[in-house]
Amino acid sequence: MGALWANRERRRYAVMACATVLVVAVVCAVALITRGSGKAGGAAGTRAPGTAARTVWTPDPHGTTAATGTGKAVLGLRFALNVFYLPRYSPPAGAPFAPEYTIDLKSLPASPGQSPTPVRDVRVSLDLSAFKGKADIYDVNKGYGCVRTDFHLDCALGGIEQGAIFVPFRAKPKPDTARGPAGSLKMTVRSANAPTLRHTTRLIVGSPYLTARQDYPRLTGVRPGGEIRLTPAFGNKGDTAVDGGLTLLISTRDATLPLRYGNCRYNKATGATFAWCDLPGPLPAGAAYETDGPVTAVADAEARTGEMRFSVWRTVDGDYLSRLPASAPRGSGAPLRLRPVDGSAFTGVDLRRSESAGAGLSFETTQKYDVEAVGFTIKGKVGQVLDVTVPYPLGEGWTPRGRSGSFWVTLPQGVTVIDVPPESHSGDIPYCSPDPDKEGRAVCSGPEPPGTVMRVRIDKRVEGARGSVTFHSDPSVDPDQRNNTAPVKVEYGP
């Protein structure tokens, strides 16, 4: 789940890579928050570029409006901020990053079992007059038809068949603005054939700055089926309290969570890998807490490595893509509680300072790796040039952790590898290249999701010709080196 969370952060803020945050459990494999560069409309055109439509819609219990009318079309507002914290201008640093006001609209079935009806002529109107004297509005999203008049913004999205996710504007704080409640931002969504939506966002000048304990040690020597313990810790280094509740998200990879805590919901009744835990607020400025004991996970029986991660969110604007329904399995024990700690060393991410923070740990078990090469056959006619997929091995341990690795193919006699420079093709698939250290051998890289390809030419027929594919691994973690090499054969066509 840690990878899933990292993916979501890369999507949410295209200008940063956040490798230390968790989870988002459960669902986050789509690019969801982005600057739109094209209007909504059509099955492939209803989303911001680089995003994927989701088919599950969960209404926000904290104020997000959803249309439920009986018209031919229904449009749902899956997400918009309920509280906008406008950080204060702080010389000499200047204006810090303000939150992104992301809007997520979704075309919904009018009744269960029906397909959504396309929503026509969608228009989003925003009354941003609460920003007057407090912030400058800029970066109006023209790609989604947004036009600004003073502190009013109108976006003509056109038709929506599936959904639209976009940031209509950005805000930059002005100097000398008094901290505290500052009114409301008001949104109205109208269309030609669906009920009108309305949503109100509270504007507060000042901002919490959520932080988390970092540098959790990597655990080694964990027994498969053994316990991994993590004590989540977080704080608020901002100038404004989180005055509502807090939500702690916990996720695992190659480990499971016992259904222990009464204030946590879990994604599965058995084998849970994600927990959504509601905690009471507030989180005052300057305060920091940790859980009153470590949260425990159990390493999978076959696990060699894994992760356990957490993040903390303001409940009112918690990660809506990860929210578990009220019917999700709950823990059977006492609630997870907090105790105060010194959070002076905790850190956060400036681009999402009022939203969330997180961290976690990775672990390594005593289970040994076993890299097993997979052989393959080159099939073709003499004189033919062809692309051959080179299979990756079974098992892990042949690549450096988190990076690509190299492996080698010794060509059967009569077969030549052809160099394919990256600039000569438009795809993402890596090609093997001639090995400069040894004639008749190719060097390949991976693992890449599309696979690795080798371009070869069959120069002549050599009966019984054999080559090999070889993957290197550390003998200390992969004691069986005998199966790191597999044969490469040639099958000649007529």
Automatic annotation (TrEMBL):
<keyword id="KW-1133">Transmembrane helix</keyword>
<feature type="transmembrane region" description="Helical">
    <location>
        <begin position="12"/>
        <end position="33"/>
    </location>
</feature>
<feature type="compositionally biased region" description="Low complexity">
    <location>
        <begin position="45"/>
        <end position="55"/>
    </location>
</feature>
<feature type="region of interest" description="Disordered">
    <location>
        <begin position="37"/>
        <end position="62"/>
    </location>
</feature>
<feature type="region of interest" description="Disordered">
    <location>
        <begin position="420"/>
        <end position="453"/>
    </location>
</feature>
<keyword id="KW-0472">Membrane</keyword>
<keyword id="KW-0812">Transmembrane</keyword>
<feature type="region of interest" description="Disordered">
    <location>
        <begin position="465"/>
        <end position="494"/>
    </location>
</feature>
<protein>
    <submittedName>
        <fullName>Uncharacterized protein</fullName>
    </submittedName>
</protein>
